[in-house]
Amino acid sequence: MPNRRWCEELTEHPLRIVLAKLGFDGHDRGIKVVARMLRDVGFEVIYLGLRQSTDTVLAAAEQEDADAVGLSIHNGGHMTLAPRMVNTLREAGVGIPVVVGGIVPAVDVPLLLEEGVAAVLGPGASAAEVGETIRSAVEAARADVD
């Protein structure tokens, strides 16, 4: 089991993250592993499952008072789905970061970041790397508000 100490030292309250699969992408093994990783290092995880829309993710993020949204994308729709999620949150006035994980070609990462995605993680990322990336994205989003 991963060490929770790094997470507990950085925050008094656990961060809440909504994890989802947008559209018809049926590859859910990776997001389930990430959900468990994040839970094991102290995050509160709200896993919405497969076939979600940006509106259902937005609603869950608002209802759960989420600190971030995590999307797992393995079907090549990252250049459409991730910016759409960022824009949906932005238009609703929900200033939380979107972190993308999955199969994203390296050439597309800078484009996603330009579109407002906070971070992109690829296969093989460790629990510590995933947790630290999300925590940094949340801290950066909060700093932008202050």
Features:
16% strand, disordered N terminus, alpha/beta, Rossmann fold, 146 residues, five-stranded parallel beta sheet
**CATH architecture level-2 label:** 3-Layer(aba) Sandwich
CATH topology name, in short, is Rossmann fold
The number of distinct structural domains comes to: 1
Task: Detail the poorly predicted runs.
Answer: 1-10
Strand order of the largest sheet: 2-1-3-4-5
In CATH, what is the class?
Alpha Beta
Going by helix content, strand content and strand pairing, the class is: alpha/beta
Count all strands and give the number.
5
What general outline do the C-alpha atoms trace? globular
What is the CA-atom radius of gyration, in angstroms?
Answer: 14 Å
Would you tell me the overall average pLDDT?
91
End-to-end Cα distance: 35 Å
In N-to-C order, the SSE pattern is HEHEHEHEHEH
Percentage of residues in DSSP E strands: 15-25%
Binned, the helix content reads: 40-55%
Kindly report the name of the CATH homologous superfamily: Cobalamin-binding domain
The description of the largest β-sheet is: 5 strands, parallel
Number of discrete helical segments: 6
